Fold:
Amino acid sequence: MATSVGADLPSDNQTRLFSLGRVSLVSRSDLGDLSPRWDSLVDSQPVPNHCLKSWWMRQAAQAEPMYLLAMDGDELLGGLALEVDRWHGTRRARTIGLSLWPAHFDLVADPAREQEVCELLGQWLRSRPPFVFDFKGVSHEARLLEMIPEDLRIDEGHGSYAIRRPDGGMTEWLETMSANRRKDVRRAFKRLEAAGCQLRVVPPAGADRALEDLRRLQHAQFGDSSVLIPVFDRFRGAVEVPLRTGEAQFFEIVGPDGRTLVLDLWIRAGWRAESFAYARSPDAPAGAGNALLAYVVDAADPSIEELDLGTHHGTWKRGWAQLHRRCVDVRGAFGVRPRLVTRTVDLAVKALRFGRRMRK
Structure:
C-alpha cells in the first residue's frame, strides 16, 4: 500500500510524494545526474521514444519540467516526465515537449520493477492532484492509460505508421508493396541515376551543414507554412547531442554538383527510429523522396527493427508502412478551480464555434 509522505527534500531539489515500502515517488524539476540511467530505461521500454530522452526534453520543454520519479534509495526505477505551466490562472500538467510534437508518450519503468513504478504513479493520479491535465500523443499501448481515472477524457489523437524492418532489407520490404508502388520506386532510382544523383548517409562531421540545408529546403518546400522553421533553433538544440552520438542521423540525396536535394532526419531510441524532419528541393527528380525512404530501409543501423514515419501528414504513409501505432489525447482536471476553469473554457469554445456556424 502506498503512503503519502509529502516531505520536502531541498538538498536534492526534490519533494517526496508517496512511498511503497522502500520505494518512493519524488518530484524533481530536472533529472541532473540521473539522466544516463533515465535514457537507458527509455531504450528498454515496450515502445522506445526519443521524445523522452533527456537530451530532447531539456530543449523541447517550454514550461517548467516536472519529473515524477520512482526511487529505491539512490536508484532510479522509472517515472513520468511532464511540464507544468499556468493556464487561465491554474496549474496545467502537459506532455513534456509539446513544442516539438511528441508521440507515443508513456511512463518510463525498469522492466524488472515496473509494477512498483506503476503503483506509485497510479497512487499520484488517484490522489487527484489539483491540475488541469493535457496529455497529447499518448501511446494507445501506454501503461499510463491503465491508471488514468475515469473522469479524465480520452480522445483519439494523431498516430503514426511504421515499417517493421525485414531481414532482407529494401528488396524484401518492396515485396510487401503493390506492383505499381514497386515500379514507382524502381523508376525513381533510375531517374536519380540518370541525373547523376547520389544517395548517402551524412556522417556526424557533416551534421551542422545538413541542419543548414534542412532549414533552406524547408523554406523552399513549405515557405511560411513550415511548422519546423519557427521552432528551428529549439529543434537544433534538441538534436545536437544525438547527432554527435549517432542516435540521430541524416540521410540525403545530392545532385551532381554536390548540392543537397532531399534530406531526411531519423532519430532513434532503443530498437526504433522515427523520421522527424524531411525536406526536398523543387529541383529533385520525381519520386526522389520514395527512393530515399527505400534507401533508409537498407542503410539504417542493422539493430533498428522499426522505422516510424512520424505523425504528420499521415494519409500517404498508409501505403508504405504495415503498422499503425495509434495515439490518444487525455484531458481533464482535478480540484475545484481547475475543473471550473476547464468547463468555462470548454463552454467559451463551444459558444465561439456556434457563433461562427450562425454567421455562415
